[in-house]
Design brief:
The protein is α+β, with helices and mostly antiparallel strands. The protein has 23 helices and 24 strands. β8 and β9 form a beta hairpin.
Length: 777
């Protein structure tokens, strides 16, 4: 009950409550896609969005947020940290219908070139960093080195995009080409339908507008279409399946426990035959005994519910603290009224369905024959024994289903841990450098800083290499995705190319991080401003676009064919790196830091010995170079790999806990059934021993009976698990939902536990003294 209540509180807060926006069914997400490629989603260009806003009538409004703004380095009261933020058009929050808790939302004037830099923050950030003081509105904080004035605070539970803690107007925050040219798409679009419009009507109108207004700005090969999706599906889609899986696992554990309770109640009913006989002889009606059983069962269930609520509150606090998932409305999760009602309903269901009904059936059937059975000369009835077998078999089957689910996730996690990440995990340290001064807004100043920093860090004892990078491996699933054009390829196929993961690095980066060079050369100090543009591609990128041929000497440029961007020569091929996520290898392209327009943000250090011991020395050197900069995070590459597996590790931990609980309850249930069988068949065992049966015969017979229904439960569990484990396919990486090794090991563990649970009562049965049993009888 505790596990189910805890998981249900999350499901209720995240999935079951209505969205906290006025008329949420009128909200939609707009996806732009290349013609004929529905699986590919394009980022929308700012000028295309303004065209859609002007030309459509079926939308009350259209707004957007930047697709890859991610975390910002923020300084509040001289404390620097990375805070998840989003660049949004000024009308996104009004379109959603959000009302600020304090202050105001953005206005159209805030979202103009040259406007004052402003920011809206979440209630969580307001309480954590501003002490929930209303005077936070109007304060100035530094975001990415620039001063921003706080103009509003949003109430909890309305944050969108999910996980955002602050919002900034998009136009003042991006370079002019993003908002003034049609060559760069970077927006995700949200729409609110007009009062009388349907989603189909709005979709048809938008298609017509794109065909009439948007596509003429592109070559025919880059024509696009758009599809609409209900807002709730995109908002909750990623968290739906994992939460339902966890709730289902908790429900199966509850059913296993209920089957155990049912067996206990049946056993108690058999053990109370003499009491039932006496009550019946004195005139008690079976209904009176049913009410007595209901009272006993209800007290048991309610006591379990009280303890369950305590466990749910504690478990929920621990799980939310450990959870790596950013859940929509996560801060509203708690044991509220509906959750308490769910807990009470569970207690009632278990009391009536599994505590009362088995005993009631037995009472109704046996009241007439209770006096005969009360004499002690009859063993437990065949029907009672059959019910015990049914519930015990169910326990085995359900336990196996939960164990197989946990086994698949554990196998998946083990597989992820064994993946080759493409860089050195052992002797490499990463330092996120916070550049919170306006002068570092110019890339040249940041480049100069990193050159000095690399030179000084390289002199530290035990350091064998140092380099700088725009982003470090496994920093975030978000990044810089760039469209590009390959020289000599048909123009018609260019728009179909996937985007490249853009990485700017200093010379020495590959040697420092431990990424092997497969072909060509590495970057040199001469690859800088004014020199011919060059790039290094990953081996995966090379195979994707050049097959078995070497790409060294080939050329590409950023943007579509008509962009006129300068050609970049490929001078090398580096090894494959899992740069964005542990589950995937991205298509990477590296450029020299001096030939890119973004300031570097990460220092990579290779050293011998204790890597973290270098932290204080590196921080001191940063302060010496410029007191305005600092290290916002220091982590080894091993820690980055560990953090990248936080979500599968968390899911595995929870399901493994449920699996262990299921195995424990199942073992107790099997033991209980076997022990009860030995007690009720003591007379039979005594007679058999008197007539010449050996102790081995008794053990063999008891084990045979127990393992027979255990095997039936295993077979049923395998069939059920093969059917329901398909829901885990989306969270498994390169592991089949019918992985033979997992099934074999899981069945072996369960059979071993079942054999032990059956064996102890069987051995006890073999030690029955027939003289004592027959004399007492």
């Amino acid at each position: 009950i505790g596990a189910n209540t805890a998981i249900f509180s999350v499901v209720h807060a995240v999935l079951l409550q209505p969205l906290p926006y006025p008329e949420p069914d009128r909200l939609v997400r707009v996806y732009q896609q290349p013609v004929g490629q529905p699986e590919t989603v394009l980022d929308v260009k700012y000028l295309d969005l303004t065209d859609w806003q002007r030309e459509t009538q079926q939308f009350a409004d259209l707004a957007a947020f930047a697709s890859s703004s991610g975390g910002f380095l923020v300084e509040i009261d001289e404390v620097v940290e990375t805070i998840e933020g989003k660049l949004v058009t000024w009308n996104l929050l009004p379109l959603l219908g959000v009302t600020p808790l304090h202050g105001r939302l953005f206005t159209a004037e805030d979202d103009q070139v040259g406007a004052e830099q402003v920011v809206v923050i979440s209630e969580g950030l307001w309480r954590q960093r501003f002490g929930a003081e209303p005077t936070a509105v109007g304060q100035v904080i530094r975001v990415a080195g620039e001063a921003h004035r706080v103009v509003g605070v949003l109430p909890a539970g309305v944050e969108y995009p999910v996980g955002a803690q602050m919002w900034l107007p998009v136009v003042p925050s991006v370079a002019p080409p993003f908002s003034e040219e049609r060559s760069i798409g970077f927006l995700n679009v949200v729409g609110r339908l007009a009062p009388e419009a349907s989603i189909d009507q709005a979709g048809e109108e938008l298609l017509a507008v794109i065909d009439r207004v948007t596509n003429p700005h592109q070559p025919d090969s880059a024509a696009s279409v758009a599809t609409l999706q209900p807002f709730a599906e995109t908002l909750l889609g990623e968290s739906r399946q994992p939460l339902w899986i966890l709730l289902a696992a908790a429900g199966l554990v509850l059913l296993i426990a209920c089957a155990n309770v049912a067996n206990l109640q049946i056993s108690r009913g058999i053990g109370r035959r003499r009491e039932i006989a006496v009550r019946g002889a004195l005139g008690a009606d079976w209904k009176d005994l049913v009410w007595l059983a209901l009272l006993e069962s209800t007290i048991l269930a309610l006591a379990g519910a009280v303890v369950g609520l305590v466990l749910a509150k504690w478990g929920l606090r621990v799980a939310m603290a450990w959870s790596p998932m950013v859940l929509f409305r996560g801060e509203t999760i708690g044991l509220h009224g509906p959750v308490l009602g769910f807990c009470l309903a569970l207690a009632s269901l278990t009391a009536i369905g599994f505590g009362l009904l088995p005993l009631t059936q037995g009472l109704r059937r046996r009241l007439g024959q209770a006096l005969h059975e009360a004499g002690g000369r009859s063993t437990a009835g065949v029907s009672s024994r059959r019910w015990l077998e049914v519930f015990a078999t169910s326990q085995v089957a359900l336990s196996l289903v939960v164990l197989i689910g946990a086994g698949l996730l554990l196998r998946n996690l083990t597989h992820l841990q064994s993946l080759e990440v493409g860089f050195d995990r052992e002797q490499t340290l990463t330092v996120a450098v916070a550049l919170l001064d306006e002068k570092y807004g110019q890339p040249s100043a940041a480049h100069q800083l990193f050159e000095e920093l690399i030179e000084q860090v390289s002199t530290l004892p035990s350091v064998t290499g140092a380099a700088g990078a725009l982003r470090r491996p496994l920093e975030s699933p978000l990044g810089f995705d760039y469209a590009f054009t390959l020289e000599g390829r048909p123009e018609a196929e260019q728009p179909n190319y996937p985007r490249l993961n853009y990485i700017a690095v200093t010379p020495g980066y590959f040697e420092t991080l431990g990424v092997p060079l497969r072909d060509g050369r590495v970057f040199e100090p001469s690859d800088r401003e004014g020199a011919p543009p060059v790039a290094i591609v990953s081996a995966r990128t090379a195979r994707r676009f050049w097959g078995e041929s070497s790409p060294v000497g080939q050329r590409l440029h950023w943007g579509p064919p008509e962009s006129g961007a300068p050609w970049i020569e490929i001078v090398g091929v580096a090894g494959e790196v899992r740069y964005r996520e542990i589950e995937s290898v991205s298509l990477d392209v590296y450029v020299p830091y001096r030939q890119n327009n973004w300031p570097l943000r990460n220092l990579i250090v290779r050293a011998d010995g204790d890597l973290l011991a270098l932290g204080p020395a590196i921080r001191a050197q940063l302060r010496e170079l410029d007191p305005a900069i600092r290290a916002s995070e220091i982590a080894t590459t091993r820690e980055l790999v560990w953090k990248s597996m936080a979500r599968p590790r968390f899911h595995t931990l929870l399901l493994s806990l449920f699996g262990g609980l299921a195995l424990l309850i199942g073992a107790v249930g099997i033991y209980g059934v076997m022990a009860h069988s030995v007690v009720t068949r003591r007379r039979e065992i005594g007679v058999r021993l008197t007539l010449g049966a050996t102790a081995a015969d008794i053990v063999r017979g008891a084990l045979g009976w127990g393992m027979r229904w255990t095997i039936v439960g295993v077979v049923l569990g395998l069939v059920f698990a093969a059917a329901v484990s398909r829901v885990l396919a989306s969270v498994l990486f390169e592991i089949s939902t019918t992985d033979p090794a997992t099934y074999i090991v899981t069945v072996g563990v369960l059979m071993g536990v079942a054999l032990l649970a059956c064996g102890v009562p069987a051995l006890r049965a073999s030690r029955v003294d027939p003289r004592v049993v027959l004399r007492s009888d």
